[in-house]
Amino acid sequence: MSPLLSIERLSVAIGGVTLLDDISLSLDRGQILGLVGESGSGKSLTALTVTGLLPLIGGRIASGRILFDGTDLASLGPAGLRKLRGGRIGFVMQNPMTALDPVQRIGEQIDVVSRLHLGLSGEAARARTLDLMGQLRIPEAAAVAEAYPHQLSGGMKQRIVIAMALAGEPDLIVADEPTTALDVTVQAQIIQILTGLVRERGLALLLITHDMGVVAQACDRVAVLYAGRVAEERAVDPLFERPAHPYAAALIGCIPREGMAEGSLKGIAGSVPPATQFPPGCRFHPRCPHAVDICRTERPLLRETPDGGLVACHLAERIAG
Amino acid sequence: MLAYAIRRILMLVPVFLAVSVVIFLILHFIPGDPIDNLLKVGAPPEQRAEMMARYGLDRPLPVQYAIWLGKLLTGDLGTAIVARRPVADLIGQALPHSLLLGGLALAFSTVVGVTLGVVAALNKDRFLDRAIMGGVLFGSTLPSFWLGLLLILVFAVGLGWFPVSGARTWSSLVLPVLTIGLGGTALVARITRVSMVDIAAKDFVLLLHAKGLSPMRIQIRHVLRHALIPVVTILALRIGWILGGAVTVEVVFARPGLGTLLIKALSQHDYPVVQASLLMLAMAVMLGTLLGDLLQAAMDPRVRGALS
């Protein structure tokens, strides 16, 4: 059987600039795929593309395709995409503080999803909303449903956003940095809620984050993006034990660990270049400590690793070995 | 919300007093007085002094103000010195004409302005948007008295569709309403478009799309709903402005109304009439501001939240 979500050799452009270059990923029910990388690596753009929101920000699919449950998203018209969005694909945004309509009551904002996608009546939709809010451990759901967004905390708002994503009975949830804007104490709760949904309901979760700690804690597989390309795609444990791509290794090196000597926490020098200035060859080479001549001229293709992952680095065997 | 409304109304009291002082004093700084209009040229000074005493104009200004304010608070606007009629009658005759004209002009600029703004926003950066915004920019640069004359020239004198002046028929309202309303239309259209485009780029709108709502529903039920908050505030502020703007337009179209009354009284230095007319205009501005604040609180729960 084909996976629930399959991104095949996808390239995305905004204006004349290609921002995602030949990306392939797949995700099945009951799985959590982490998408990591620094700002500018193309994570959020991937999320918007998968949810069919690309045209809203003026982007288009330049080549490749996205299959959702066997259907090519490009073959669906706007109406078909709308049915999918909020219905079978739920979306959780990065900043819950700005994700809700400030002048509409919380309950109505959740109700509309099940009314639209499940065809529920007003009363049934509200009952479902309150039920979902209860499942997400939102206290006094009935009172919260009558509240306006500004009356709730950030963590509570993110639960509301998750409730909205769940209201249409989705198969896939795309969460774009769902914890970045929240307090550390609340971050863990939100990640627990999301992973719980995958385990209990068999949802698929595309979890976009730049927090390698969250990846280690929650994901089954990880795709590391750099400058619009997949650098490495592997199961979580081997990736953290023996990262094959220098960029993946550098990201993991940025996680603080117990017993680390003071001052030994690493960063990665430099930043992701803007899309108009991507360098030739391996796009990471200007920041790579291992770079040799071939990295500067030739694009590294994705190759299989012995444990069934993929890596795009000329020197992968040498570094991992 | 009710407490807020009461507080806002109480805040108008000192504003009202300050405005009344300015309105009372401002006329006395203009050379000449109403008695000039009542006396023949070369009348003896005794006759003049007697007239001044009859209308209380010989007393010190603070005393005159206190008497005027005291009467005002009991609803007595005084008697017109030159026109020799109760001021309340004059205002009572003029005000309905001005309110009708101003109200229709406000309704026109709201309906047409919001519609144009929405159409422009929905077609952002396309031909229709540029055409509407270009036309609106042109319209907003025309002074109303000049636009009034132009409309008269084309539609009344040239085409003969509407009367040149007066207020005898409903059709005589068309040109004055257009004259006042067109300027407001430009403003409303621009604010509607700008705030719709601004709101449409917000995160929560992206999430509405992600929920699968149709673009039209998102634009009208959410984006426009937000965009109308500043529009309503501006419109409420314009209530006073439109009545004030009607002053020149009423004169251009020779219509009865507060403006015509004010201009005539001003030229005759008829203090009580000028004072009462100006007070009406000032109160319209104050009430408009109050209405704007209350509507904003009614439309935006965040504003209400900040109040309590």
TrEMBL record, chain A:
Q: Which SUPFAM superfamilies match?
A: P-loop containing nucleoside triphosphate hydrolases (SSF52540)
Name of the molecule in the record? Oligopeptide/dipeptide ABC transporter ATP-binding protein
State a GO cellular component annotated for this protein: plasma membrane
Query: In what residue span(s) does the ABC transporter domain sit?
Result: 5-252
Q: How does it sit in the membrane?
A: Peripheral membrane protein
GO BP: peptide transport; transmembrane transport
Domain of life of the source: Bacteria
In alphabetical order, the GO MF annotations are: ATP binding; ATP hydrolysis activity
User: To which species is this protein native?
Assistant: Gellertiella hungarica
Lineage of source species: Bacteria, Pseudomonadati, Pseudomonadota, Alphaproteobacteria, Hyphomicrobiales
Q: Which NCBIfam families match?
A: oligo_HPY (TIGR01727)
Family membership noted in the UniProt record: Belongs to the ABC transporter superfamily.
UniProtKB/TrEMBL annotation, chain B:
**Domain ABC transmembrane type-1 spans what residues?**
95-292
Q: Look up the record and report any one GO term of the cellular component aspect.
A: plasma membrane
How this chain sits in the membrane, per its record, is:
Multi-pass membrane protein
Q: Which residues form the signal peptide?
A: none
**GO BP annotations listed:** transmembrane transport
Query: Which key words are in the record?
Result: Cell membrane, Membrane, Transmembrane, Transmembrane helix, Transport
Q: What is its main location?
A: membrane
UniProt cross-references to CDD domains, sorted A to Z: TM_PBP2 (cd06261)
For this protein, the record's Pfam families field holds: BPD_transp_1, BPD_transp_1_N
Show the InterPro entries listed in the entry: BPD_transp_1_N (IPR045621), MetI-like (IPR000515), MetI-like_sf (IPR035906)
Q: Which compartments is it annotated to reside in?
A: Cell membrane
Transmembrane annotation, as ranges: 9-30, 99-123, 144-164, 170-189, 227-253, 273-295
Similarity field = Belongs to the binding-protein-dependent transport system permease family.
Question: Could you tell me what this protein is called?
Answer: Peptide/nickel transport system permease protein/oligopeptide transport system permease protein
- Organism expressing this protein natively: Gellertiella hungarica
